[in-house]
Design brief:
heterodimer, A: alpha+beta, Immunoglobulin-like, 3-stranded antiparallel sheet, 7 helices, elongated, B: alpha/beta, Rossmann fold, 7-stranded parallel sheet, 44% helix
Chain lengths: 257, 224
Amino acid sequence: MVSVDASATAIDGVTLVTVSLTSDGPARRVRVEQRLDGPVWPPRCEGEPERGWDESGYEGVVPADGRLALGYATPAPPAQQPVVVEEREVVPDTADAAGEDATTVLQRLGDPSPPRDGVPEPAAVRADSRPDCDTAPAAEETPDDPDHVPSPEHPVRDESTAQTVPDRRGGSTDPVTDWLDGVEERVTTLERLDAVETVPEATTALQSTGGLAAGRRSARACAADRRRLLAVADRARRLADRIEATDPPLSSLERLA
Amino acid sequence: MILAVTGGKGGVGKSTVAYNLAAHLDAVVIDGDLGMADLPADHGPDLHDVLAGRADPVEAVREGPPVSILPCGRSLAGARAGDPTALVAAIEAVERAYGDVIVDSPAGLRADVGLPLYVADACVLVTTLSESAVTDAVRVRELARELDAGLARVVLNRADDGANPDAVAATLGAPVSTVPDDAAVADAQAAGQPVCRASPGTPACQAFRSLADAVERVCRGHRP
């Protein structure tokens, strides 16, 4: 059963009609016909009547136990009952907002997350996680600086930030591997350019590596990579040395426990 | 009540409006700009952590005064790590705990703009007089309409004396509140305070107060 609440108000020679349809049962298709003596001026979007409207009224669905609100204008003078509503067949319920949920909104409008290539490499991510760097943009970090490699004396808040920020979009979830793979790619580019001996070889190499500007970028990136790699290697060696220097008396400790 | 402060174009003052509205309505403001957060943040769990499932949305709220905020992280890795659709449940959880929520939406028309509109009871559209800002506002208004977020108010921000709000109201089809181009806004921002706390009695403070009154009048019907 659909109940109807309609009114018509004349403003500046135009009659504005509001219709509120309320259903206390299943979703039902309805036809709303103009009873006033004049054409229907329907709501428009981009100059076109909105969906469901035609020259004599509206056809649409009142949601189950829900409400459908309509409004239109007409040059006809107002009257007590501006519309007549005809109830038609029961239809499967489609919730409001066209039955959308968060996932369909995401699919329709596009994922706003930054692209994978736009996310700083692990060294920069790690620097970004330092408590005193939280509000600084990652771009202002100086990941080239070997001091940014966390040292045992200056531990970062969460040394495994990279692991606690897993990439949810497939591929490797190990940023260290990603970083090393990236370095390897850049080194390969540089080696390819380094190996050329003749002009045709140079032309082919530049074409395959993206041109001279890309070559320059690779060279600059590799210089930074080298500093970072040496800093990481240095720390790795010190950690390995510390492991080697320890020999905890575990069996004695077990007995004591 | 969940209110999305949106507008399409960047730099029109969405965050300023959201923050000051939250101050007047005693609401929690959620920084929904997942890629380029604007609202003040400190250390601790933020919206990125919430969307990645590492923090509870209610526990991530920094309670005021002056304004309760659920801040957003600023790292790109954080923006990529979270599930944007989790924003809906997070906003609803904060609403259940605190009552009124204002979501400061980012620029653009992607899902980070659509999801707050999807979950919101109503929206406030912020624009300046520039043609590009009004054009973008029209686009977001269409999206808000599709996603069932009623337009509570249009804010014409940084309006000088000659600004004609009627033209904007006619274009966007909703009543307009103007916020003047007042140095008090920048001063308050620098002080990390709502305008009416930093500079009470200024034209900008009065504008935000009357905007909040208007929004409250329109949205009262949405209150549970």
